[in-house]
Design goal:
By secondary structure, the chain is mainly alpha-helical. The protein contains 2 helices and 2 strands. 29% of the residues lie in helices and 6% in strands. The radius of gyration is 12 Å and the shape is globular.
Length: 69
């Protein structure tokens, strides 16, 4: 996963989720994000969990769901 030192600027949540899933072994072309326009300032994650578990935990306070085929 690419770690970016931030300067406090807001970033799209979908950029973080994409980086998370790609680091977890998924292909970026297999990921689809629809109607997610939330911004985040930063994220701290427990890397001992799987990328799916991390993404589900991130989704809880937001109004989106994660579906798998």
């Amino acid at each position: 996963m690419r770690i970016i030192a931030g300067n406090g600027e807001l970033r799209l949540l979908t950029d973080f989720l994409e980086a998370l899933f790609v680091a977890g072994g998924f292909e970026a072309s297999d990921l689809v994000f629809e109607n997610i326009d939330d911004l985040i300032q930063g994220a701290v994650i427990d890397q001992t969990e799987s990328c799916r578990d991390i993404a589900r935990r991130i989704a809880e306070p937001y109004s989106f769901a994660i579906f798998e085929r």
